[in-house]
């Protein structure tokens, strides 16, 4: 990993050209000062790199499941500190950005970068809670665990606490992203999750008043949009006050003012706006799925790998899937999207069976293992799908077929997990059988289609 990190720093124009660096499950995500200094082709050709995605705001290098090791090595070799890991922008960088043309693409990429930096630290927690919930449900269904037992109660609490208190977790990671106090953010969002406030929700109280101003009552458990909006406003106010107050007053005045202003503001304005946005997003998706779940399943399954390829799958994940699971305990999108993983796995198995290249065969096994064990599909997409073309197309088609099948039976998942063999318990429920059959359909149809269509192996792939 040392050589890979050293080469990447060099080919990205050197340490001084890197503004920020962070990572998700498989990619290094960097912001660069001058992209003209980057040797993209050399990065693509570097051993250990699966692909490059150059968006307007970020330069992404696809590494695979060992991306964290490369990231840590880059941090050690540069002056970038932990705060850069969460993509903090410096004043000079903000000034440079304001000079750039304001385009929809730039804003959308910036939105994705924010979303990714906020939710990436929470992924292991989501996976752990999801699997625990899945195993608990499965254990009660097969009679190993009594549904009314205290053991089941405690395990359920352990698994669902993550989503119950999701606004607090998001407040912490968002505070790091927006360079503001995570402890104040935690206290502000915590006010809306206090037992007294939740009691108003349980009693179906429509509103209360604060200094004569009506305060709408909502259940903010599991909500992410209100938390993100709140912490963003907090960061603006905190930075403003730090610029106006002398240092000696920061410790006492800033927390007091932020709590005094923001808790009521969140309860009266920001929270309801975020809640309505969450509701509208969920209702929009539910309307599309309920109008024709077969078509919805086919579309989601068919295009999900394309979303992953460009890194935009986090938009629906964070605005719809995670809030839905937190509020209703289930999501159909998470089930339909799992077909994309198994479609690519089937296509990659066809590469293994048809190819004469030992390199491709070896990488095929690695990619399939990644999907089955961890639900990570990027190695298959970038390492084989993009390069060989046919497996990517076949994988998408196979996933669409499997997604349509799941849509017909209204399959749902009960936790936010990536589609793999180890995450099947997260789908334990009345439609588990249809989930397994759907994944099998995606896998087999993509494999057969790849074998029929074939693919062209270039000489440079043989050498790799």
TrEMBL record:
Q: Where is the PTS EIIB type-1 domain?
A: 2-84
Is Secreted there in the keyword field?
no
Lineage, opening ranks: Bacteria, Bacillati, Bacillota, Bacilli, Bacillales
Q: Report keywords, A-Z.
A: Cell membrane, Kinase, Membrane, Phosphotransferase system, Sugar transport, Transferase, Transmembrane, Transmembrane helix, Transport
Gene Ontology BP annotations: phosphoenolpyruvate-dependent sugar phosphotransferase system; trehalose transport
Superkingdom of source: Bacteria
Active site at: 24 (phosphocysteine intermediate)
Q: A GO molecular function for this record?
A: protein-phosphocysteine-trehalose phosphotransferase system transporter activity
The record's listing under InterPro entries reads:
Glu_permease_IIB, PTrfase_EIIB_Cys, PTS_EIIC, PTS_EIIC_1, PTS_IIB_1, PTS_Sugar-Specific_Components
Instruction: Give the protein name, as stated in the record.
Output: PTS beta-glucoside transporter subunit EIIBCA
């Amino acid at each position: 990993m040392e050589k890979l990190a050293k080469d990447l720093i060099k080919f990205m124009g050197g340490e001084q050209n890197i503004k920020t660096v962070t990572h998700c499950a498989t990619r290094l995500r960097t912001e660069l000062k001058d992209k003209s200094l980057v040797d993209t082709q050399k990065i693509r050709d570097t051993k250990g790199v699966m692909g490059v995605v150059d968006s307007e705001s970020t330069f992404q290098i696809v590494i695979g499941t060992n991306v964290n090791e490369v990231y840590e090595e880059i941090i050690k070799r540069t002056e970038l500190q932990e705060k850069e890991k969460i993509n903090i922008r410096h004043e000079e960088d903000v000034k440079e950005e304001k000079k750039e043309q304001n385009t929809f693409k730039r804003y959308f990429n910036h939105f994705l970068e924010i979303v990714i930096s906020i939710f990436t630290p929470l992924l292991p927690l989501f996976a752990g809670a999801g699997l625990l919930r899945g195993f608990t449900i499965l254990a009660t269904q097969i009679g190993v665990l009594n549904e009314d037992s205290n053991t089941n109660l405690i395990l359920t609490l352990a698994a669902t606490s993550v989503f119950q208190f999701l606004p607090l977790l998001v407040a912490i990671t968002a505070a790091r992203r927006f360079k503001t106090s995570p402890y104040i953010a935690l206290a502000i969002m915590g006010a809306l999750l206090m037992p007294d406030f939740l009691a108003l929700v349980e009693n179906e109280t429509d509103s209360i008043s604060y200094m004569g101003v009506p305060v709408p009552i909502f259940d903010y458990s599991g909500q992410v949009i209100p938390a993100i909006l709140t912490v963003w406003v907090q960061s603006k106010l905190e930075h403003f006050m730090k610029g106006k107050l002398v240092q000696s007053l920061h410790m006492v005045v800033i927390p007091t003012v932020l709590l005094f202003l923001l808790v009521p503001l969140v309860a009266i304005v920001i929270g309801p706006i975020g809640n309505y946005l969450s509701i509208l997003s969920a209702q929009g998706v539910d309307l599309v799925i309920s109008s024709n779940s077969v078509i919805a399943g086919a579309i989601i399954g068919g295009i999900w790998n394309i979303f992953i390829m460009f890194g935009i799958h986090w938009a629906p994940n964070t605005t719809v899937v995670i809030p839905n699971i937190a509020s209703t305990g289930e999501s159909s999108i998470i089930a339909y999207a799992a077909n994309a993983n198994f479609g690519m796995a089937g296509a990659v198995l066809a590469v293994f069976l048809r190819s004469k290249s030992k390199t491709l065969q070896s990488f095929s096994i690695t990619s399939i293992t990644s999907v089955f064990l961890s639900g990570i599909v990027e190695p298959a997409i970038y390492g084989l799908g993009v390069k060989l073309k046919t497996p990517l197309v076949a994988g998408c088609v196979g996933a669409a077929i499997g997604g349509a099948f799941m849509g017909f039976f209204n399959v749902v998942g009960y936790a936010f997990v990536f589609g793999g063999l180890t995450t099947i318990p997260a789908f334990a429920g009345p439609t588990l059988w249809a989930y397994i059959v759907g994944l099998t359909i995606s896998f087999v149809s993509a494999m057969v289609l790849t074998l029929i269509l074939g693919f062209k192996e270039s000489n440079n792939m043989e050498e790799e």
